Amino acid sequence: MACPRTCSRILGLSLGTTALFAAGVNMVLLFPNWDYTYLLRGLVGKHAILGSGLWGGGFMVLTAATLISLMGWRYGCFSKSGPCCSMMTSLLSTGLALLGALICFITSGGALKDGPFCMFDISSFNQTKAWKYGYPFKDLKNRNYLHDNSLWNSTCLEPSKAVVWHVCFFSILLCISLLQMFLVVIHLINSVLSFFCSLCEE
């Protein structure tokens, strides 16, 4: 039984760390080029404003990580909990962490698909010299901005390096959520093994 508990401690710490990183990355996305004025003017993309890295991959996963750690250390009410109670808590923490990580993953994937929210020239669309804020890559046909670096600096005029900022941090958020899902699967396997070991001991 010592081995599953040690595994729970490590998993709880790992998930908690990834949750803090996810929240930090989402916070950075709210301030393109470290400029807070875009947020004040409402010129931040909907995916960053949604904050799935804060409440999904962040708070929900951190709550689950805390539960997992408490079970691993047998702290408080978990000190004398039976196998059924531990299994129920494991399932609850697994579901919570998986849901949070999945929300963060879907939002990050959608953000990378739509591209950054930035100011771009719409003269190519309606033959008049004009600029507006929006998603210039969202309706781009026959070209994928992720594979065509030449579009990165030529399309988005403001904020500067908006595409690099967007792609970089949403890719990190996507990787963090994938790692969280992987850790949750390991936790579920560990919980099932712990449950059967407890029944065998009894």
From TrEMBL:
<keyword id="KW-1133">Transmembrane helix</keyword>
<dbReference type="InterPro" id="IPR008661">
    <property type="entry name" value="L6_membrane"/>
</dbReference>
<feature type="transmembrane region" description="Helical">
    <location>
        <begin position="88"/>
        <end position="112"/>
    </location>
</feature>
<feature type="transmembrane region" description="Helical">
    <location>
        <begin position="12"/>
        <end position="34"/>
    </location>
</feature>
<keyword id="KW-0812">Transmembrane</keyword>
<protein>
    <submittedName>
        <fullName>Transmembrane 4 L6 family member 19</fullName>
    </submittedName>
</protein>
<comment type="similarity">
    <text>Belongs to the L6 tetraspanin family.</text>
</comment>
<dbReference type="GO" id="GO:0016020">
    <property type="term" value="C:membrane"/>
</dbReference>
<dbReference type="Pfam" id="PF05805">
    <property type="entry name" value="L6_membrane"/>
</dbReference>
<keyword id="KW-0472">Membrane</keyword>
<feature type="transmembrane region" description="Helical">
    <location>
        <begin position="54"/>
        <end position="76"/>
    </location>
</feature>
<feature type="transmembrane region" description="Helical">
    <location>
        <begin position="163"/>
        <end position="189"/>
    </location>
</feature>
